[in-house]
Design a protein that fits this description.
five-stranded parallel β-sheet; 440 residues; Helicase, Ruva Protein, domain 3; alpha/beta; 4 domains; single chain; two-stranded parallel sheet
Length: 440
């Protein structure tokens, strides 16, 4: 390359977006994805061992899929060929394979094919790639934001390993922003930024490093000092009054819970949206919903817990922004579900009794007779197997002697719990009668 070409390349690099200029040049400089690149982890071991397998990098936008692919290829000294599944076809694959074969024959060098948007390749294109991945002509590093189980055919999937990238945490994005402000190839000497402005950008970027750095670059236009209003304008979002560690945090989450408890889905959805738009971790909100499903709904609608847990799992699968859909669905369901606090009340009574009475002995007929001595002492001998009796029930003592007659769980008349209440009342009435298996 001559001097003019080198100068043109440097000029082009200087005009590249900040997110491109700030790409790390080694795994040790990579921020985030410690579960993949930390000491002893899968990709770190692959790099250190010089044996890079074919991988599908699955994760939300801006989590470092392209950066990671470049670093992996560079660390193994392989040739790096980048291709977009949106633009490439079977002809491009064949050309890449021919070049890889020639590179291996002449220089003994491996070729890594980075295929962005892998899920956009149709079955025929994936089938064309398959034999070359299988023979090792190409090491495939595919990148996708979609679930590979649905979008990549099983034959190709079986010859690759799927690794999941997670959205970056707020502190990790803050680290990237600070590096960009200090780096010569970044914004060093061009602009300053207030800490609260950086935090606002990191909090509202949704775990997306590219979005955070692009917002910083936009805010830095014209120089000067980046303040919260400048950052708001860059992101086209307003700061919502919500301190994740302060009074407003507790006030809003309290309003959210009380709105669901009061069966007002509109208010509950408003408070949930306030939290999410202000940058609250969706997992925090989802955990509160799971707690609510047992604490405030309970057995009045057992499906509520299923819905809340499913929303948490769906968010982990989908991320933002799509993850707000199962969250909204769950909040509406929990708000309108029949309510009962019998579960938390029952546990509170049981806990108080345990603390008051200590470790009362287990009745002998409930103890296992797992040794000859235990059998000699009569452990378990008087136990009556409920399935041997009509209705799969028999009058029998289950509480310690000192707690006979103590009640903890009192089902409400709400929703499905009303049926449980009738069942429990029936059983307790039968306990008062001299029925088969009676102790009296």
């Amino acid at each position: 390359m001559d001097l003019f070409a080198q100068a043109a390349e440097r000029e082009a690099a200087s005009r590249a977006p900040l997110a491109d200029r700030m790409r790390p040049t080694s795994l040790s400089d990579l921020v985030g994805q410690e579960h993949l690149t930390g000491p002893g982890r899968l990709l770190r071991r692959a790099v250190e061992g010089g044996a890079l397998p074919s991988l599908i990098l699955w994760g939300p936008p801006g989590t470092g899929k392209t950066t990671l692919a470049r670093l992996l290829a560079g660390s193994t000294r392989a040739a790096f060929v980048q291709m977009s599944a949106v633009l490439a076809g079977v002809k491009d694959i064949r050309e890449a394979v021919a070049q890889a074969e020639e590179r291996a024959r002449l220089h003994g060098q491996r070729t890594v094919l980075f295929l962005d948007e892998t899920h956009r390749f149709n079955k025929a294109q994936q089938d064309a790639l398959l034999p070359h991945v299988e023979r090792g002509t190409l090491t495939l590093l595919g990148a996708t934001t979609e679930n590979p189980s649905f979008e990549v055919n099983s034959a190709l999937l079986s010859r690759t390993r799927v690794v999941t990238l997670r959205p970056l945490e707020e502190d990790e994005l803050l680290e990237l922003l600070r590096r960009a402000l200090a780096a010569p190839q970044g914004l060093a000497g061009k602009v300053e930024a207030a800490e609260d402005a950086l935090r606002f950008i990191a909090r509202t970027a949704g775990g997306d490093a590219r979005r955070a750095l692009t917002a910083l670059e936009t805010a830095a236009t014209g120089g000067g000092r980046i303040t919260v209003p400048v950052a708001e304008e860059a992101l086209q979002r307003k700061v919502l009054l919500y301190d994740r560690a302060g009074d407003e945090h507790y006030a809003v989450i309290s309003a959210f819970i009380k709105s669901m408890r009061g069966s007002d889905p509109d208010a509950a959805l408003y408070w949930m949206t306030r939290m999410l738009e202000a940058g609250e971790d969706p997992r925090f909100v989802l955990r509160r919903m799971v707690i609510f499903a047992s604490e405030d709904v309970g057995n009045a609608d057992p499906q509520a817990l299923v819905v809340a847990v499913a929303a948490l799992q769906a968010y982990e699968l989908m991320g933002l922004p799509e993850g707000t859909l199962p969250m909204t669905q769950a909040v509406a369901y929990l708000s309108l579900a029949p309510k009962s606090n019998a579960v938390i009340t029952a546990y509170g009574k049981a806990k108080e009794t345990v603390q008051e009475t200590g470790t009362l002995p287990v009745p002998p007929h409930l103890r296992p007779a797992s040794t000859p001595l235990m059998r000699k002492l009569g452990f378990g001998s008087a136990y009556q197997y409920p399935h041997d009796f009509e209705g799969h029930w028999v009058k029998q003592q289950y509480l310690p002697d000192a707690l006979q007659g103590r009640r903890f769980y009192e089902p409400s008349e709400s929703g499905a719990e009303a049926a449980l209440r009738r069942r429990l009342e029936e059983l307790r009435a039968r306990e008062q009668k001299d029925e088969p298996g009676s102790d009296g």
